[in-house]
Fold this protein.
Amino acid sequence: MIFAIDAFGGDNAPSAVIEGCMLAMQKNPDFSIILTGDESTIRDELIKHTYDSARVSIVHAPDVIDCNEQPTIAVRRKKESSIVKALRLVADGHADCFISAGNTGAMLAGATLIVKRIPGVKRPALAPILPTLQGPVMLIDCGANADCRPEYLKQFAYMGTAYMKNVIEIENPRVGLINNGSEEGKGNELTKASYSLLKESDGINFIGNCEPRDIMSGDYDVLVCDGFVGNAILKTLEGTFFTLLKMLKTELMSGTVSKLGAVMSKGAFKTLKSRLDYKEYGGAPLLGINGGIIKAHGSSDAKAFASAIDQAIKLVSGDVTGKIASAIAANPIDWEEL
Amino acid sequence: MIFAIDAFGGDNAPSAVIEGCMLAMQKNPDFSIILTGDESTIRDELIKHTYDSARVSIVHAPDVIDCNEQPTIAVRRKKESSIVKALRLVADGHADCFISAGNTGAMLAGATLIVKRIPGVKRPALAPILPTLQGPVMLIDCGANADCRPEYLKQFAYMGTAYMKNVIEIENPRVGLINNGSEEGKGNELTKASYSLLKESDGINFIGNCEPRDIMSGDYDVLVCDGFVGNAILKTLEGTFFTLLKMLKTELMSGTVSKLGAVMSKGAFKTLKSRLDYKEYGGAPLLGINGGIIKAHGSSDAKAFASAIDQAIKLVSGDVTGKIASAIAANPIDWEEL
């Protein structure tokens, strides 16, 4: 397996990215990496580590697409950027998977433009894995498609199922539709139509609507929604989590007894934080692209980036791209793009 | 002020509802109540309390719309239900505000059908008040309208502004648009068009997009969104909150030291829980109806119901309905319903 790695993506690049690669390489001997970015800076970072040099190569990319650039324009103009060069490696078959903690929009636009979609896939989707009370759940789409059609959501269900089956090894992933009520017939125009489509689809274990209060219940393995709603849910989760911790800290620090209690509970807080930590689950795969694409969190440290590589290993060895291609080919949708 | 109160709405009706009325009446001498529901059951509850009988009357309503009934059908058929009879009191001018902890859908449908919209209002909106790191924020709409047009969102902004100004006494409420990015130009079709409308609107202090991770930041007073997204956000907040507390409890109870720490931190947890408690903020007003409508939480206890009544007092004395009517009349929208 060969991974194309954007050495200049994310808040802590390139040092955390390269350190993350080293951590992952120590754990697993079955892959090599191609780092894209400014060659001399990468070499300066690599010197700090001991590693098998046969497993590491560099493709010089002097440009960087930063997180505030307009994605499509940046991808078209910055041909020499670390993202574009790495995507090109996947498109040309020199790498099996692309991993970056950089500009999400540029990754989405670049993956679609350069690596291209799996034949039959209408829209690729960004699909983070969230922790629940029991096991992980995939929320798909979380931001690639702000406006969706029911047919897209149906395809998201196939893509999510292929991933959870082959990467997380869940035999028959339970698919839920994010909706504003649990009963059939609830929803907005999109979810009502999507419900009907999902219900009739072969090869999906559709178990019905999921109200967002039950996302973390552990009752679902794949949750489908449009990218605007998924993005709102993801950011609400994030905001609530940090706000609660902040409020709790203020409360705990306001009294002597509770302050002492907080110190004594510290271990438990830490365990909880790691249980909820996206770093443990790697990054978010972009599914539907004709090659592996993993978006690591922008603030990834070395450990988080190493988890994203672990995820890439499973994505490639489980042939998720091939499995999605088969599922999409076997379940064509009755609607053509205008 | 006279309030029409659905004595049979909610999980703890009628006892918690009636006890809540008593609590509110002890605190404030300026209103009287009309309870709707089965008269003899209400009388049996009232006997348990000491109160000024001149302030309490009963309108017999033998039927109840339960929480699983299809709203529009239930409202049309169950003319003798506690919800319909109470709404009728508002529609006929016998009461200034309706308060219920019952079936939300039936309240929405009934309010629109019986009390009717304020002239010019396209869609009434359900608008809960959420706690933040500093002060409350209104999220509008949270479920009345699953599919929205930009014009509806503009009106939500006017309605939310009128409420926060006259009930929460915020001089110039900051209005944000829930969106998938902070910059102008981000969004789905609805939010892009809504941004342009809000930006050009007089009488709204529109400060731009709000990503849902910042809902609880305290940087906004009114946040507008379509009812599907608002509902998803509200339920995600709720789910995250309870899941986190559950996870934390499990972690804390897994070790002796942290167990002791948890006991010592108990006061802090309790304060946090009450800071986040919807009961402190009363219920969610349904804005845009030609009369006061307050939806109390389905699981309201007496204290929560009393808060909903406090809210009704402010809603009526602040003449929110009149203020909304003026704002809507002063800012007509350039689009007619088909």
Remarks:
- Residues 139 and 295 of chain A are 14 Å apart (CA to CA).
